[in-house]
Design a protein that fits this description.
The protein is built from 12 helices and 2 strands. The protein has helices at about 1-10, 15-40, 50-80, 85-90, 90-120, 135, 140-175, 180-200, 205-215, 220-230, 235-245, 245-260; strands at about 45, 130. It is elongated. The chain starts with a helix and ends with a helix.
């Protein structure tokens, strides 16, 4: 019985559906990036076709994260600023459709890289072995220009959403309840998390600077960059919706107590 009541709230609450999607997405991204990182230290070079699958999955999940954070910020804004319409606007069906839209947007951003490469590279290229990076698997210069344009659009849209929701909640929090002030802090944490995630969008430029500054310790610098840009942002979500969230903490304790009593 305790399992049913615990699971039901997470299946029917749009906030937790988006959170669970974010966690699963980030777990997938971290797993793929760790595999690629280990490959770069051990096997070093990988078949282009296999590398392409890893890179595409890593790119999908990486680009999903800021979009998911923006959607969570909007849900938080609706809950605080339009509470009477929250149940009508934020339904489970619409939340699932929104998750589908997130994946569709990321795929429309990334898949052209594959199509351009298929159209411009010879067939032998996909049977060769390369160091598994985005720029080695998708080497066409047009892809870099497209990537920079796409990342700029994503950056502007997502930050506009974060700023708008934060300041609307901030004005509401001045005269409203403690929940509004907590929501404001949550959006602020989203912004910090998003700032770290956005470092991925300037990864090539950052890595070039690192290589120029620390040519002898480039491998160690890449590892530090990986921890800060890939791991740290994805460690913040459990803090925002785990430690800080009363509902999540309450049901987590109940779930753990159920496990103990059953064992």
């Amino acid at each position: 019985m305790c399992y049913v009541s615990t699971l039901q709230i997470f299946y029917t609450n749009p906030r937790y559906i988006l959170f669970i999607h974010l966690v699963v997405n980030d777990m997938t991204q971290v797993t793929v990036s760790i595999i690629l990182f280990v490959i770069s230290y051990t096997i070093y070079k990988l078949n282009v076709s296999i590398c392409c699958i890893f890179i595409l999955l890593a790119l999908f999940t990486t680009e999903n994260t800021p979009l998911n954070l923006a959607c969570m910020a909007v849900e938080c804004y609706i809950a605080i600023c339009v509470p009477l319409r929250h149940m009508q606007i934020c339904t489970v069906k619409r939340t699932l459709m929104l998750i589908g839209l997130i994946w569709t947007t990321s795929m429309l951003s990334v898949l052209p890289d594959l199509f351009i490469t298929l159209a411009t590279e010879p067939l032998d290229f996909f049977h060769s072995r390369v160091f598994c990076l985005r720029q080695t698997v998708f080497p066409n210069p047009l892809i870099i220009k497209k990537r920079d344009l796409t990342y700029t659009v994503f950056l502007v849209i997502v930050w506009l959403v974060i700023f708008y929701t934060y300041f609307r909640i901030l004005f509401t929090a001045k005269t409203a309840s403690k929940d509004a002030k907590k929501a404001r802090n949550t959006i602020l944490l989203h912004g910090f998390q998003l700032l770290l995630c956005m470092a991925t969008y300037v990864a090539p430029q950052l890595l070039r600077v690192v290589q120029q500054w620390f040519p002898k310790n480039y491998i160690d610098s890449r590892f530090a960059y990986y921890i800060i840009v890939q791991i740290l942002p994805r460690s913040i979500s459990p803090i925002i919706y785990g430690v800080r969230d009363n509902t999540f903490r309450k049901y987590l304790k109940r779930y753990l107590l159920c496990k103990v009593s059953i064992s």
